TrEMBL record:
InterPro entries with a match to the protein in the record: EF-hand-dom_pair, EF-hand_13, EF_Hand_1_Ca_BS, PPP2R3C
Official protein name in the record: Serine/threonine-protein phosphatase 2A regulatory subunit B'' subunit gamma
Annotated ranges, domain PP2A regulatory subunit B'' EF-hand: 90-166
Keyword annotations from UniProtKB, A to Z: Calcium, Cytoplasm, Metal-binding, Nucleus, Repeat
Any Pfam family: EF-hand_13
GO cellular component, one term: spindle
Natural source organism: Anguilla anguilla
Length: 361
């Protein structure tokens, strides 16, 4: 952190900065003069390239000193974190295996005040929960290792290290996968589903997940494709399942779901595949006393939404490109998801009415 302190001293002791409204700014000539004062160790930050990156439409071509300060802090943090992660790279190849990342996070726990309340007996489950997110999203080919460069480039480490903030809001904790409340929620759901308390989930137990409206056909595919032990799912496999269903807009989640929908492993979904899964939705509708919706109508809507390159086939790339993958998957695998889609206009109208009522009060 010595470099950062040196730069910080120069900012606070320079006469070159100017105030624009409430924000301190600096022009390029003054920027270079501060760089000279900062010395050789800070030279890498005082370049034309860095200055150009931080230009943000100032009429006089100045940059914000605070933005520059944050940029330097980020670069220093990345450098230190790269060194920290590299210590766990046993093979020295620029990758971390699952066990390497588990060791890194396990040793990180005591440094994160927001995790102070975790029982040590829960540490192994917490580490498993945290590591799974990295590997689910950053190791789509399931090679068992992740580039350190990819770990640094994604936002997951930011989320994890956000737990150093002792005053992190309840809302921020609830939306952060790595927080104690989030990890306890996911693990608590797993325990609640495990009715026979054998530490594993059968298909029948998993059928109660969420609103309990995932179709049997989809769950059959989960147990056919995912790693199970004597037909039951362990916690690690469950985490992949949860990450996929809670992040259906993300390409990695869509890849997980697409593999389940692509029964014949053709690399695309045709009308037969769509009909196969939607038939289970129609059956659930009958069980709930609802009039089943015509598959022909739904099929047309799906193809209209996705607009695939081939008018008769929908690929994973089509789903990702269309930004409708989450809607399509929900329609095909979850009665509640289909109901939400089918009644979207009514739900929007109700939301608008509620907003109007609040405004009136």
């Amino acid at each position: 952190m010595k470099n950062y302190r040196t730069c910080g001293f120069c900012w606070t002791n320079t006469r070159y900065s100017l105030m624009t409204g409430e924000e301190a700014t600096i022009n390029y000539d003054s920027f270079l003069k501060v760089g000279e004062k900062a010395g050789a160790k800070c030279k890498q930050f005082f370049t034309a390239r860095v200055y150009a990156k931080l230009l943000n439409g100032d009429p006089y071509g100045r940059i914000s000193i605070m933005q520059f300060f944050n940029y330097v802090m980020r670069k220093v943090w990345l450098h230190q974190t790269r060194i920290g992660l590299s210590l766990y790279d046993v093979a020295g190849q620029g990758y971390l295996r699952e066990s390497d990342l588990e060791n890194y996070i396990l040793e990180l726990i005591p440094t994160l005040p927001q995790l102070d309340g975790l029982e040590k007996s829960f540490y192994s489950f917490y580490v498993c929960t945290a590591v799974r997110k990295f590997f689910f999203f950053l190791d789509p080919l399931r090679t068992g290792k992740i580039k350190i460069q990819d770990i640094l480039a994604c936002s997951f480490l930011d989320d994890l290290l956000e737990l150093r903030d002792e005053e992190l809001s309840k809302e921020s904790q609830e939306s952060n996968w790595f927080s104690a409340p989030s990890a306890l929620r996911v693990y608590g759901q797993y325990l609640n589903l495990d009715k026979d308390h054998n530490g594993m989930l059968s298909k029948e137990e998993l059928s109660r997940y969420g609103t309990g409206t995932l179709t049997d056909v989809f769950l059959d595919r989960v147990y056919q494709e995912c790693l199970t032990y004597d037909g039951e799912m362990d916690y690690k496999t469950y985490l992949d399942f949860v990450l996929a269903l809670e992040n259906r807009k993300e390409p990695a989640a869509l890849q997980y779901i697409f593999k389940l929908l692509d029964m014949e492993n053709k690399g695309y979904l045709n009308v037969f595949a769509l009909n196969y899964f939607f038939r289970a939705i129609q059956e659930q509708m009958k069980l709930h006393g609802q009039e089943p919706v015509s598959f022909q109508d739904v099929k047309d809507e799906i193809f209209d939404m996705v607009k695939p390159k081939d008018p008769y086939k929908i690929t994973l790339q089509d789903l990702v490109t269309s930004s409708q993958g989450d809607t399509v998957s929900s329609i095909l695998i979850d009665l509640n998801g289909f109901w939400t889609y089918e009644n979207r206009e009514v739900l929007v109208a109700n939301d608008n009415d509620s907003s109007t009522d609040l405004d009136d009060t």
